[in-house]
Amino acid sequence: MKCVICHGEDIKVMDIKEEYAIGNDIVCIPVKVPVCMTCGERYYDRRTMQFLEEVEGKLNKTQVGLKEVGKVLMYEEKG
Ligand SMILES: [Zn+2]
Asked: What separation in Å is there between the alpha carbon of 58 and the centre of ligand 1?
């Protein structure tokens, strides 16, 4: 498999966290996807895309299955 962006061949399956925003909250969805080590391009296959769509569909209806692991903080410049 070659990267379509940089044509690099160093592509590894990595554990990443897909981030999904609900209002001011961010939900991290852990997935395994091949990632180009050279440019960082992620290659989602059909199954992963379907999985993410499924999870996002569930998240829109209910917040079951979520645990708080940290806070999302916004940097503000102080005058
Ligand atoms: Zn690449």
From this structure: 32
pLDDT digits (tens, 9 = 90+) for 58-69: 887 766 678 888
Q: Which domain, by its residues, includes 40? A: 11-61
Ligand 1: centre distance to CA 15 (Å) = 17
- The verdict on residue 4 lying in a domain is no
In a domain, 18, yes or no: yes
pTM for the predicted model, two decimal places: 0.72
**CA–centroid distance, residue 16 to ligand 1 (Å):** 16
Burial of 72 (0-12, 13-18, 19+ CB in 10 A): exposed
Counted domains in the chain: 1
